[in-house]
Design brief:
- The complex is a heterodimer.
- Chain A has a six-stranded mixed sheet with strand order 7-8-9-4-10-11, sandwiched between helices. In chain A, strands 1, 2, 3, 5 and 6 form a five-stranded antiparallel sheet that branches.
- Chain A is an alpha/beta fold.
- Chain B has 15 helices and no strands.
- Chain B is an all-alpha fold.
- Chain B has one domain: ABC transporter involved in vitamin B12 uptake, BtuC.
- Chain B starts with a helix and ends in a 9-residue tail after the last helix.
- Helix content of chain B is about 75%, strand content about 0%.
- Classes of the chains: A alpha/beta, B mainly alpha.
- The interface between A and B is medium-sized, with 33 and 33 residues.
Chain lengths: ~350, ~350
Amino acid sequence: MNDLGKKHIIKTTNLSVGYHAGEKDEIRVLDNVNLTINAGELICLIGPNGCGKSTLIRTITGMQPPISGAITVNDSELEKLSRNELAKIISVVLTDYFSISNMTVFSLVSMGRYPHNGWFGRLSSSDLEIINNAIELTGLNELKNKNISELSDGIRQKSMIARALAQDTAMVFLDEPTAFIDLPGKIEIMHLLRKLAFKTSKAVLLSTHDLDLALQSADKIWLITPEKKIIIDSPEDLILNGEFERVFNKKDVKFNKQKGTFKIDSHFKRKLSVKGDKTAAFWTERALERIGIAIDTTQENKNFIKIDASNGKLTWDLNLDSQTNKFYSINNLVNYLKQL
Amino acid sequence: MPKSKRTKYIVILLGILLCVSFIFDIFLGSVHIPPSEILNILVGNPSSKTSWTTIVTEFRIPKAITALLAGSALSVCGLLMQTFFRNPLAGPFVLGITSGASLGVAIVILTAGAVGIDIILLNKLTGKIGTTVAAGAGAGVVLLLIAIVARKITSNVTLLILGLMLGHLIGAFESILKFFSTAESLQGYVFWGLGNFGGVVWNDLFVMIPLIVTGLILSFLISKQLNAMLLGDNYATNMGVNIKLVRLLIIIGGGILGGVITAFCGPIAFLGIAVPHLTRNLLNESDHKILIPAVCIVGGLLALICDIISQLPGNDQTLPINAVTSLIGAPVVIWIIISQRNLKASFT
C-alpha cells in the first residue's frame, strides 16, 4: 500500500520476533516483518490462534526485545527510548485481569497521567482537563466516582480505554478489547475506537478475534497467515482477493464473500427461494440455511416461500412440490421443513 | 459527603484516637501508679517515688513509642508486600523477612547457650546488640537472596512461593538448632519468639527511630509507583515505571521495616496482614499516597490497643504481645475474608 506523505508513528524494518528458550535457543515466531503505523489509522491485527499476534504486539510496544531487525518510534530507535519516553508515545489496553476493590473510575483514568507528571504524580489543572476529556469522550462522566469493581466488563474496558487516552499518546494499542463483552458492548467499543482514530488522529492498533467487527471498522488489516506471513491490506481487498477466506476457512466453516460473514457450511439437501418483506425474508433465509436448505436467489424456483405482511401480521406460505402450507411463525415453518 | 472530605475526617479521628491510646498506654502497666503522679512525671515534676519516675520515663514511654513504631512499620511493610505480590495474604512473614531475622536470633541465642552464656547474661554483655545485629543480618541475608532471585524471576507469584519456601527452610534450620541447644537458651529464644514491646530502651530507640522513619519515607516516596503496580507489571511498565528499581526499593523498604521491628520486638503476628485491609476498607481508598500515612496511624493505633490489652488493666500480669495481636488480628482477617467474597479476585 502507498503510505507516502503520511506520518509514521511506528515503522519496523526486517523485524524478527520470537522469544528465547533457555540460554542459546531462540524461537522465531515471525520473520521479515515490515510494517508501518500512521496517525489517525485504525488497524486490526487478526490471525488464527497461536499465530504470533501477542508476540508481535509485545515487541512493537517495547514490552519484549526483538530477535533482530529495527523498530523506529517517531523516527527514533525503540531501544534508545527510555520507558517514560515510550510511555508518552504508546499506551496499552491489555487483557491482564485485575480488580481493585477500592479504586474509582476517576483514579484509574488519572493513572494515565503517570508518565507525564513527575515522580510523585501530582495532578496539575491541565492534567485534570485531559483526564476529564478522556472520561467525557468515553462516556463515563456519570460513573466516574463509582468503584471499578462494581462495574460491568464493558464499562471496565471503557475505563481502561479512557486511562490509555489520558496517557495522551500518538498510538493506542489494545489487546483483544472486545473479548468477554456482549455484542452491543463490542460494537460500542469498536465505534468508540473509530471515533478516537478519527477525532484525535491517534493511531489505533488492536488485535481481535471478532472478524466481522474487524472487517467493518478497520482502515487496514494485518492478517497473519498460517505460513507466518503478514498480509497488509484494506479489509475489502482482502475479501475480494480471497486471502481472508484462505486463512480462516475450516472444514465446516466457510466465509461468505457476499455477506462478509462466516457461516456453518451445511450440506444442502434442498433449494428454496424466499419472496416478500425484505427484513422478514433475511431472517427466514438465515433460519433456512441453519437447517441445511440453500437459498435460491434466481426467484424462478417452483419451490418457494412467500411472506405476507398485509394484515399487520406476518405469514409464511410454503409452496413445495405444488402443495401450499400456511405458517404463522418461522419456528413453525422450520419445524415442518425439518420433518420432511 | 465527598470522599476526600470523608477521608480527611476519618484520618483526623484516627489521629486523635492514636494520641489518646498512646497516653492511655503510658498510664497503664503492671505497677500501679496514680494518674496524677504520671501527669507530674510527664510535665517534668518530681514524683513522690523515684522508682515511679524510672518506670514511666525508662520503661513505659519507650514501650509506647516502640508499640507505635512497630505497628506502623509492620503495617506499611504488609501493605508493600500486598501490593507488590498483589496477594491479600501477603505480609512481613512472606519473603522470609521474619524467618530470616528469627534464624539470626536463634543462632546467637542458642550458640551462646551452648557455650554457657544465657540470654540475660548475653544481653547484659552486649547490650542487646548481639540479638539485634543477628536479626538484622538474618533478615538482610534473606532479602539479599530474594533480591538476587527477583532479578531473574519476573513472576511475583513465583517470588511469593519462593519466599514462603525459604521461610520453611529456615524454620527447619531453627528446629535443628533448637534440638541441639540447652533448656535455658531455648527458653530465652522462646521468650523472644513471644514478642515484646517492653524490652526496648532509649538507646535501642535511637537506632530504631531513624531506620523506621527512613523505611516509612522510602515507602511513601514510591506511592505513585505502587499505585501503578496495582494494575500489574505490564501496565506499570507501560506507564513508564521502572519495575526493577521499584521492586528493589520495595524489597529494601519492606526489609528495613520488617527486619528492624522483628530484631527489637520479636516476631509480631498479624498486624502486617490485617491493618492494610482494615485501612483500605475504612477509607475506601487504593491510593498509596493516602493509604501509607493512614496505615501508619491505624497500625500504630492497633499496636497500642494490643499493648493496652496485654497489660490486663487492673491486674499485675502481662500477656505476651504476640498472643494479643493474634487474638485480635486473626478474627479480623477471617472477618475480611468472609465479608469480602471477592477478596481473592480483587488481587489476582
